[in-house]
Design brief:
With 405 residues, the chain is α/β, with parallel strands linked by helices. It has helices spanning 8-11, 24-34, 60-68, 71-76, 99-103, 115-126, 172-178, 247-257, 265-274, 301-304, 313-330, 334-353, 356-360, 368-382, and strands spanning 15-19, 38-43, 54-57, 83-87, 93-97, 111-114, 131-134, 138-143, 148-152, 157-160, 162-165, 185-198, 206-212, 215-221, 227-235, 279-286, 292-293, 296-298. The protein has one domain (15-393): FAD/NAD(P)-binding domain, CATH 3.50.50. The strands form four sheets. Strands 5-4-13-14-15-12-16 form a seven-stranded mixed sheet, with helices on both faces. Strands 7-2-1-11-18-17 form a six-stranded mixed sheet, with helices on both faces. It starts with 7 loop residues before the first helix and ends in a 23-residue tail after the last helix. GO terms for molecular function: FAD binding.
Length: 405
Amino acid sequence: MTPTGLPQDVRIRRTVLICGASIAGPALAYWLHRSGWAVTVVEKADALRDGGYPIDVRGTAIEVVRRMGILPRLRDAHIESRRCTFLDADGGTVASLRPSTVVGSVEGQDVEVRRGDLAALLHALVRDDVEFLFGDSIDAFDQSAQGVDVTFRSGRQRTFDLVVGADGTHSRTRESLFGPEEQFHRHLGYCFALFTMPNTLGLSRELVLWNTPGRAAALYAVGDHDELHAFLTFHRPKPPLDALRNPDAQRDLISRAFAGAGWEVPGLVAAMREADDLFFDTAGQIRMPRWSQGRVALVGDAAYAPSFLTGQGSSLALVGAYMLAHSLAAHRDHTAALAAYERDVRAFVTMNQALVDNGAATLFPTTARALEQRDAMLRDLVTLPSAPARPAHSALELPAFAPAP
């Protein structure tokens, strides 16, 4: 017994290192701090990334952010797009609909915000209680029965009771723990590029999407700003591995993919070549048989990226962070906690990832026949009531947050 009369293991706070300060990382930090953990977050970027493309918070994730107390601020940051217009090869209008009709969100409940706005809200929620190490990353870690010895790229060395990788689809934590990404990556047949460009078309609070078979170009006007989020995607049966780490090769690949395209696409391609914020990747999912090993676990895209085609990445990150923290609060033993986390979240993840197989990729048809069918469906939606939310959005009932054991 200690001088205070309490057992030693009650008085010593458990320590956790979270790798990644985007969505899943800070959300997990909030819940773990609340249950008594001493939390450190390491982020390779020098600061939070502001702005960013729009993301959705839906279904079960809405309840998570409500319990965090940030739902009113997210509603204030809600983008409130007024319409989504689909164009044909020549730029003619195929259909113009309310965004909720297209993506299956629930108006008045689900929210859409800039990714950076959500990240900033999560950071503000925990910055006074959590240690952040910006401009650093994990170089190596070594597990033992007592903890995880971590060596950072900066040279510092620390030991933690638990390490959690929340470092995205291309997680280095996952690679160090389980091996190369190729083992777990399911390519969905598309490449995409995101960047910003001047709003020379006068768009306001709307999304405009141009399609031909196997190619799509979109412009997203968030509010009435003079800047647009541009999006280019094209069908690619196999991932272009040679271009993934070469920005010049990416620009050349995109230019070739959109050669001869109509509407405003040549202007988008020219803007892409000049953009200093180009983000290029393949559309894919991370599917793993397990999300932890020993004292190291994964959460969010690092464990179960669903791809942008589902619109569920941020929501899965928020729900996964809550459920992981809940399990660690309910079980003092980390092995039991991580087993409970996987048991309780696996079906929800599987259901959300299956949205691609259930039609979530139909916005980007790869054949002329599929495009005709998609356009016919859109024209029908113009005269039909809004589609109900997809069941996966609310398929997981959140348990009450358990007190620390």
